What we know:
This is DUF2793 domain-containing protein. The chain folds into three domains: about 1-40, no CATH class; about 40-115, no CATH class; about 125-170, no CATH class.
Amino acid sequence: MPGNPGPNLGLTYGWLPGEPGWGVSGFNPNMAALDAVTHLAVLGQQNSPPGAPSAGDRYIVGTGSGAWAGHDDAIARWNGSTWDFYAPAEGWRAWNAAADALWVYSSGAWGAAPAGTVAAGSITTAELGGDITAAGKALLDDATAADQRATLGLGLSDAQLDDLFRAAAGIEA
């Protein structure tokens, strides 16, 4: 049975052991796609390719022209000899180095993420009402602070709150 493309990144999977398709047409493009879009960070958004890209450079294509024509909003990655393109899906996030901001693909367009957005599934500082680093450190320094952490009203267990404050304070568990 040949591999089938998955519904999210289009990665092919489902080959049986010994079945052809693991090389050039299967496994290798899958790894290239994962390398291109995992922990996505781009140098910026441009309409046309830069003059002298380095292998691995990634951009968000604006209104594509030249080698990028027909790839509006895609992630363009220079593989060392040609451009590879990855069409984003709703909710993709990318760090935009030129804008020094997290961008989100939403409603068919890339744009700055709403204030306080951190990562999928994360609690944002906006949801907590501001900077929690100092509060987290203070509560972690106080061995009797479990009751204070529990009164934050976030509906989290003591263990989840401990993890949250440790992450905010930069302290490993």
